[in-house]
């Protein structure tokens, strides 16, 4: 498999073609004819109810499960026929409850795949140090600990470090943050987004939490039973225009509020220039509109200052500017979703012609 390094993207495209799995003894397939193209460097979230076959799809990509039919291409290479052990060294895999080996130290866990593929000792040591730092764990402190001496969130970080250690172009993550409390989960999600901005791997991330999906995904594929695709689109498009009742049920209540998590204050056109009036709360320009709403609602004067990286004041948001911005944003989402639906209906018609 060639490593792809263009425009800072280190990930490789993944294509699933008519991928199907029927387990021995089952009459119905667990995964029934799924086809999907994932762009290099994309973070794709697969979301769907329990039993919809998400984990089975993931495990077919790294051949922990052999497909009954169909094929998988990674960077245009058909990997359905190649040696699964070799393949797995090119695909990082992080799972719920971290999957760390309990009898190995943190460093030994992270070093596993680099050692297996024959890196020399110095390179492995340097890599372990780099990975620990990357996931926010002080190497000196955590190097020799065993997994049981870490918190759940720290174990997940080590799990991610281990999955990334051999610098694979593809990273598969199966509910990696499922077992930690909501606050740790949010910080691990932020951490993953930060890492991904730097690394630009192709990531397939499985969850059954739609909020997690919209927070993380460049695109989301919503699966119904037997991994049939209910909708495959950007978080914005799915929130603005769920394809059917099944997807609406998944999106849940409060789509407009969820949308606030997807926009940063710096992207607001309507931030007023600072006018010298005293403002209590302040917000980083990286804050989400949801953070901005929280700040405005809890500020006695109903206003919050937006500050730049050095603390300089860039502008002020208040309820009126937020309302206007959110209105415009939802309107733009609706138009984009309608346009998109029209385009896909047209291409289906052309395909059928
Ligand atoms: N080894 C197996 N043998 C037989 N059936 C299996 C096997 N593994 C999974 N299945 C079945 O395949 C279906 C899909 O399972 P899978 O674990 O892929 O779902 P999932 O969407 O990941 O679910 P969850 O969110 O609960 O983890 C289920 O009905 C499950 O019972």
Tell me about this structure.
By secondary structure, this protein is an alpha/beta fold. It folds into two domains: 14-254, P-loop containing nucleotide triphosphate hydrolases (Rossmann fold, 3-Layer(aba) Sandwich); 263-353, CBS domain Like (Alpha-Beta Complex). The chain has 13 helices and 13 strands. The protein has helices at 54-61, 84-88, 106-116, 121-134, 139-142, 152-164, 182-199, 210-216, 235-240, 245-251, 255-259, 289-298, 319-352; strands at residues 14-21, 31-38, 43-47, 69-74, 77-78, 91-95, 170-174, 202-207, 219-223, 229-233, 281-284, 303-307, 313-318. The strands form three sheets. It has a six-stranded mixed β-sheet with strand order 6-7-8-3-9-10, with helices on both faces. β12 and β13 form a beta hairpin. Mean pLDDT is 86; it is low at 1-6. The chain binds adenosine-5'-triphosphate. Residues 23, 26, 30, 48, 50-56, 208 line the site of adenosine-5'-triphosphate.
Task: Tell me briefly what this model is.
This protein has helices at residues 54-61, 84-88, 106-116, 121-134, 139-142, 152-164, 182-199, 210-216, 235-240, 245-251, 255-259, 289-298, 319-352; strands spanning 14-21, 31-38, 43-47, 69-74, 77-78, 91-95, 170-174, 202-207, 219-223, 229-233, 281-284, 303-307, 313-318. With 353 residues, it is an alpha/beta fold. The chain folds into 2 domains: 14-254, Rossmann fold (3-Layer(aba) Sandwich); 263-353, CBS domain Like.
